[in-house]
């Protein structure tokens, strides 16, 4: 089963303290590192400083060390500094005696999908903001129209009340 997952997923193994033990070629290709550049390095090298210093990051590792898997979408950083999005599960691994001894991460690169989703969100936000501005402009135009109409009605009313001789 692991062989099948290795073929189709980006796979990386960590010690319980987050040090990289091994990674397959799919992972290395996705992240832009060679194996020698990551073995023995902490998992933080794949995270932004903000992420790796966050309480959520520490809590995730505490959860893993308690034997519970973590699965979600993760934003990580490639070697070249660009973002990569991974749909991943971090899976605690137990030995034959039931002792937790490492964590294996199975991941799929979903960067293109996330970029499309984020672009859709940005486009939707732009459309919403534009509609708010359009609505506001329309209300201002209506207010101005009503004010001018009142002025015109007032003027027309005064004009109609004047004797016919003075209108010439």
Automatic annotation (TrEMBL):
Signal sequence extent: none
Transmembrane region(s): none
Residue stretches making up the PAS domain: 1-41
Classification via Pfam families: PAS_9
SUPFAM superfamilies registered for this protein in UniProt: PYP-like sensor domain (PAS domain) (SSF55785)
Superkingdom assignment: Bacteria
InterPro entries linked to this entry: Bact_Chemotaxis_MeTrfase (IPR050903), PAC (IPR001610), PAS (IPR000014), PAS-assoc_C (IPR000700), PAS-like_dom_sf (IPR035965)
Domain PAC span(s) in chain numbering: 70-122
Protein name: PAS domain S-box-containing protein
């Amino acid at each position: 089963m692991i062989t099948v997952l290795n073929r189709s997923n980006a796979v990386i193994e960590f010690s319980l303290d987050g040090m990289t033990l091994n990674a397959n070629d799919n992972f290395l290709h996705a992240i832009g590192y060679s194996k020698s550049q990551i073995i023995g390095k902490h998992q933080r090298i794949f995270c932004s400083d903000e992420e790796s210093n966050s309480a959520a990051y520490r809590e995730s590792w505490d959860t893993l060390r308690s034997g519970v898997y973590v699965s979600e979408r993760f934003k990580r950083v490639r070697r070249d500094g660009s973002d990569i999005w991974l749909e991943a599960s971090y899976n605690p691994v137990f030995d034959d005696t039931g002792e937790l001894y490492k964590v294996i991460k199975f991941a799929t690169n979903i960067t293109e999908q996330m970029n499309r989703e984020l672009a859709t969100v940005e486009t939707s936000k732009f459309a919403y903001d534009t509609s708010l501005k359009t609505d506001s402009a329309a209300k201002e135009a209506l207010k101005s129209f009503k004010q001018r109409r009142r002025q015109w009605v007032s003027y027309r009313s005064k004009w109609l009340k004047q004797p016919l001789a003075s209108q010439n």
